[in-house]
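Title: [Solved] Aspartyl/glutamyl-tRNA(Asn/Gln) amidotransferase subunit B 3D structure

Original question kept below for reference.
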Amino acid sequence: MTNSAYRIQGATGEWEVVIGLEVHAQVVSKSKLFSGASATFGAEPNAQVSLVDAAMPGMLPVPNMECIRQAVRTGLAIDAQINAWSRFDRKNYFYADLPQGYQISQLYHPLVGEGHIDISLDDKNPEAAVKRIGIERIHVEQDAGKLMHDQHPTMSYVDLNRSGVALMEIVSRPDMRSPAEAGAYLRKLRAILRYVGSCDGNMEEGSMRADVNVSVRKPGEPFGTRTETKNVNSVRFVMQAIEHEASRQVDVLESGGKVVQETRLFDPDTGTTRSMRSKEDAHDYRYFPDPDLLPLVLEASFIEACRASLPELPDAKRQRYETALGLTPYVAGVLTAEVETARWFEALLAETATKQGKGEEAVAKQAANWLTSELFGALNRLGRSLEDSPVSPAQAAELLALVADGTISGTIAKQVFEKMLETGDGAAAIVEREGLKQESDTGAIEAVVAKVLADNADKVEQYKAGKEALFGFFVGQTMKAMQGKANPQVVNDLLKQALG
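Solution (posted by the thread starter after getting help):
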């Protein structure tokens, strides 16, 4: 993957875009980072606020070790350094939804150090175009509350349910050079978090959001001044924000101006960014070690237990699907892109192998092709996701077994599948009820073949004179006469015999 693919054409020549992302991922945990209050999304405003979250005098934070465990597991999943000694700092600033007047974060000694994520921009051949994006650190911090400005004509309301919820801030290096690379990175990071189970990756609910750092430079020159666009909550919006912000900076520089280091906001309705405030530096926040919290010291056994708890991750799973199951890089990539797809496929694979009495590698291509074409196509048409599929892996395996043993043809299988979607009934029951069993009785098929050839004597002569393409016509006529229920292999064999 080359960096020359994406350039902004300005009046003074080409400009290169430099991108880094700071992703805030909400940790999957029943309670908050430093209190026992629930961290569940969707409760009534201010229904999940403990005295610690509300910063009542004398309240002391107590670390939630499940949140620490999930952050360590995430670090291990991106092959990062886990720091056995880390520390919490206070980041001091005033905001109406921050009751303490500071945020407990980690600046100088984060829990997780350097790691990386490998991305690909080529779906057809993911291994041919891999780029490694460096990750600088993951630090654990508490979220602020939420201000609501649309509930009252003259006042803003404060909801502190989110106050104190555990976040992992995953900070990339400025290694991305196009909106497409940033999109691929964000999708890959989200997939890893969901595989690990440390964050649900639900960007619509705000449990994963990105701060987008963008600068531009002439190729080969030092980095330019960057801006930070805050809290962008979809992959598409991140890519739009980069595109707009990079073009805006080029226009500023080419008109003789200077890019100001600032914090900006993205407007999804217009696809543009606008200035929010001048960018603060670390010293503006007066960071210092939180006096209420001891440093975190992790034992080697704890880190190893976290490592042992990790599932098979997307890259390893895709590699296994290619080498052990013989799937193409593209199909393997589709099946492993989302953890739900991989789980559904593996359930289908196990059921299919059992029902057909074969090894998983023998049925993998049949199962994978059916899932990625037939089921995905139907779900897309119905506007449903894999999680609420009307057909279960066991039902799908039953349908595939009926095709494999010759009970029904591939064409009839499509009809049966449609009826499964409509009724929720099993494939075997539908085949029995509708009389759709494939006809393999050679006697019955021979009679139809004889009639088709007799009715088309002129085409038989043409075929025998060398027009071999007509063979497909005879197959089609025979299948049509038998309402698609004839075994195609038997039809082919009998036609070859009859046509000499």
